[in-house]
Amino acid sequence: MVELKTAQEVDAMAVTGAFIAALLDDLAGRARPGVNLLDLELRARDLIAERGAQSCYWDYAPSFGRGPFRNVICLSVNDAVLHGLPHDHTLADGDLLTMDIAVSIDGWVADSARSIIVGTPRTEDLRLIEATERALAAGIAAAVPGNRLGDISAAIGSVAADYGYPVNTDFGGHGLGRTMHEDPHVPNIGRAGRGLKLRPGLTLALEPWLAAGTVRIVYDPDGWTIRSADGSRTAHSEHTIAVTDGAPRVLTARS
């Protein structure tokens, strides 16, 4: 069931969103060559505890994955793109790091992901990240009353096609609010004019993610970390947004 939020409830989600944006800013500033992924995980735990927030990932146990997730952030490196399990890994110069996090404050959830380059960037990695960011912007721009869910998906998929990247449909965006995952599912490719009609109060996590060379994915032995099947680099950009009477509101916008 799709739950529309009141203006006050959207404001409450925006409080959570602002915290997540600041947390990702903090971690991005710390992600340098020689830094261990576990250091970033522990920093995220500290920031969440200081704020009195609750992790949506801790003890998360969906149908995929191996046992409950016992971390507060997903950290995915290079060919890993989703659900990266933080582990003892030291970042190297040129690594492409994706950080994905969802937390709840006073019962309201926001979710965001950001891909960054650690140290010296490669041109092809910058282009891949740019594609996800522009796809996200296009999806957000389509999230206006009167449009349909397919318009968002089509906008995201169109940008990916313009860049020449294939689109995987196994994982995509989703509704959220009181919990991390609510209806509806938002594929990263679709047909304009199809699907749920967008109405003010609809809150969505839009999250285009791309692999440079394939739509196929594989899982690490940890049961969580998802990688491109061909080992090509990956990137992921995500914002929590609200459909309003006018322009969409980005609740996890960077300051």
Automatic annotation (TrEMBL):
A divalent metal cation 2 binds at residues 111, 174, 207, 238. A divalent metal cation 1 binds at residues 100, 111, 238. Belongs to the peptidase M24A family. Methionine aminopeptidase type 1 subfamily. One of its GO terms (biological process) is proteolysis. It comes from Mycolicibacterium neoaurum VKM Ac-1815D. Removes the N-terminal methionine from nascent proteins. The N-terminal methionine is often cleaved when the second residue in the primary sequence is small and uncharged (Met-Ala-, Cys, Gly, Pro, Ser, Thr, or Val). Requires deformylation of the N(alpha)-formylated initiator methionine before it can be hydrolyzed. It comes from the Bacteria. InterPro entries: Creatinase/aminopeptidase-like (IPR036005), Pept_M24 (IPR000994), Pept_M24_MAP (IPR001714), Pept_M24A_MAP1 (IPR002467). This is Methionine aminopeptidase. Residues 13-245 form the Peptidase M24 domain. SUPFAM superfamilies: Creatinase/aminopeptidase. HAMAP family: MetAP_1. Its cofactor is Co(2+); Zn(2+); Mn(2+); Fe(2+). The keyword rRNA processing does not apply. GO terms for molecular function: initiator methionyl aminopeptidase activity; metal ion binding; metalloaminopeptidase activity. Substrate binds at residues 83, 181. Its EC number is 3.4.11.18. Binds 2 divalent metal cations per subunit. Has a high-affinity and a low affinity metal-binding site. The true nature of the physiological cofactor is under debate. The enzyme is active with cobalt, zinc, manganese or divalent iron ions. Most likely, methionine aminopeptidases function as mononuclear Fe(2+)-metalloproteases under physiological conditions, and the catalytically relevant metal-binding site has been assigned to the histidine-containing high-affinity site. PANTHER family: METHIONINE AMINOPEPTIDASE. Keywords: Aminopeptidase, Hydrolase, Metal-binding, Protease. Monomer. The keyword Protease applies. It holds the Pfam family Peptidase_M24. GO terms for cellular component: cytosol.
